């Protein structure tokens, strides 16, 4: 039987602990999904519900110069790290509440190890889980867009065996409305990684995207990746050694990525996105 009272308690608890918004969906909505990754039942055999929690970036924290990596990691990198730690704390608070009520809970960390052969995650996409929990819709830039904070958020996902009250899915509504008129992220992406003719979660070209977020644009001062990078198969791993030789400073970017919770070195499609701005 759906536990409406516990659902309300969970949402209240997460907000009290600092969450911006909480969405709850049926765990089954994340089974057999496009890139997925790992079934919720692999993570928790008797999972019933999915809980998505987001926390917004403080206003102004994304309006920073991105052309100086030292400034970038010590501002955005630190804030990203702090928000991730906050989400970890919130998830533990929610799991404790579930445990007190006789249920189990497991959280999937905000930083998921990347397996490029299975797109951006080897476990799950927090954005996809966010859409399945009714938290928002995946926009043209591949990020979860929430009506309150747009895509300027960080996310964590939990699975539980508690039978909670599910929010409705709003997938497609923002993409087919606001995004179709806007397309600012498509225009601004220096690597031309966003294809407005496709539908989420297929709008992003992974190879082009990696050129931006791994820091190669900064290092090479070349915005659109070279042909061999764009066409690299099965992944860009086949050409990365060549570029590492050409731009050895990438080692510093690797170190920062480890240190600052997988910090991406291009944020343009996030900072330009007007959705959710009052
Ligand atoms: S920038 Fe515009 S098109 Fe891109 S995700 Fe945001 S609202 Fe959608």
Compute the separation of the termini in Å: 39 Å
| Number of E-type strands | 7
Query: Largest sheet, described in full?
Result: 4 strands, antiparallel
- What would CATH call the architecture of the largest domain? 3-Layer(aba) Sandwich
- Number of discrete domains: 2
Taken as a percent bin, the fraction of beta residues is 5-15%
Bound molecules: iron/sulfur cluster
In DSSP terms (H or I, runs of 4 or more residues), the helix count works out at 12
Please bin the fraction of helical residues.
25-40%
CATH hierarchy class name of the largest domain? Alpha Beta
Question: What name does the CATH topology of the largest domain carry?
Answer: NADH Oxidase
Shape call: globular
GO molecular function, one term: oxidoreductase activity
InterPro entries: 4Fe4S_Fe-S-bd, 4Fe4S_Fe_S_CS
Protein name: 4Fe-4S ferredoxin-type domain-containing protein
Organism: Methanoliparum thermophilum
Secondary structure elements and pairings:
Elements (H helix, E strand, L loop, with lengths): L3 H13 L4 E6 L13 H4 L5 E8 L12 H32 L4 E4 L8 E4 L5 H7 L4 E2 L5 E2 L7 E8 L12 H10 L1 H5 L17 H8 L2 H5 L6 H4 L9 H7 L3 H10 L8 H4 L7
Iron/sulfur cluster binds next to helix 5 and helix 6.
Describe the structure.
This protein has helices at 4-16, 40-43, 69-100, 126-132, 173-182, 184-188, 206-213, 216-220, 227-230, 240-246, 250-259, 268-271; strands spanning 21-26, 49-56, 105-108, 117-120, 137-138, 144-145, 153-160. The protein is an alpha+beta fold and 278 residues long. It has 2 domains: 4-160, NADH Oxidase; 183-271, no CATH class. β5 (137-138) and β6 form a beta hairpin. 41% of the residues are buried. Bound molecules: iron/sulfur cluster (SF4). Residues 170-200 form the 4Fe-4S ferredoxin-type domain. GO terms for molecular function: oxidoreductase activity. InterPro entries: 4Fe4S_Fe-S-bd (IPR017896), 4Fe4S_Fe_S_CS (IPR017900). This is 4Fe-4S ferredoxin-type domain-containing protein.
